[in-house]
What we know:
Blueprint: E1 2-3, E2 9-14, H1 21-32, E3 37-43, E4 46-51, H2 58-70, H3 87-90, H4 98-102
Amino acid sequence: MTTNDTGTVELEARSIRFYSAGDEDAFFRWLRSLPCIARYYGVGPTLRILVVPHLVDEGMLRELLAMFRRYSVDMRQLALFDKPEFADWFRNDKAYWHKAVFE
């Protein structure tokens, strides 16, 4: 995860495993459906995902959590979006994502 001078944050999805062409299509449709995603591109086995942080709301963060969990993307990167307005639910230590994001 890196920040850059374009106001976006770059997340990395390394060596994503797709189980069928339809699974791969579903992943990219899901990614394109999120308004906070500025763009994405591949570099070798890594998909770089550029996110506009101020566009990440609760719904989009929940989608990113689900997507990263489903496709085994390193969820620790999502800790970047730990903001006071999300604290009540995002920091819930019983949530399926808590350990993967915060520990």
